[in-house]
Amino acid sequence: MVLVKDVRIVGVGYIVVRMIGKITGSYIGGRIANSPKTVQKYLGFTLIPQAGVAIGLAMVAETTLPPPFGTKVRTIILAAKVVYELIRPLMAKMAICKADEANKTCSCQDELQEQSSYSNV
């Protein structure tokens, strides 16, 4: 439990900075590649949950760095992956809806209204 307290601030910072980096990087890359505006604006949100390489590097860091630091790095990266997996469906749906790529017969607003009507029952 002490380990979790030690890495909490760094972990939150890692999550926030990584999200900002993915969104900003995909926007800049989209502009350089002259991609459509929807790709420039929303691609970063779909890239947030992608962390496979980071997990592999976390395992390498754990074995390479001295004992307290390697474990902390692994804990931060794996905890961030859990957060990304929890927000993945929301981010994907938001990006698809904002890019206006959702099925035209069932918009995201219709689904949100339908869900709220179920919760009122």
Annotate the secondary structure layout.
Elements: H1 2-32, H2 37-47, H3 52-64, H4 67-98, H5 108-120
Concise synopsis of the structure shown:
The protein is mainly α. 83% of the residues lie in helices and 0% in strands.
Structure notes:
The protein is an all-alpha fold and 121 residues long. Helices cover 83% and strands 0% of the residues. The chain has helices spanning 2-32, 37-47, 52-64, 67-98, 108-120. Helix 1 packs antiparallel against helix 2. It is elongated. The N and C termini lie far apart (41 Å).
Radius of gyration, in angstroms, nearest whole number: 18 Å
Low-confidence stretches: none
Alpha-beta classification: mainly alpha
| Beta-strand residue fraction | under 5%
Work out the helicity level.
over 70%
Terminal CA distance:
41 Å
Oligomer: single chain
How is the biggest beta sheet arranged?
none
Please tell me the overall pLDDT: 81
Q: Could you spell the SSE succession in H and E letters? A: HHHHH
Tally of helical runs: 5
Large-scale geometry: elongated
Q: Let me know the number of strands.
A: 0
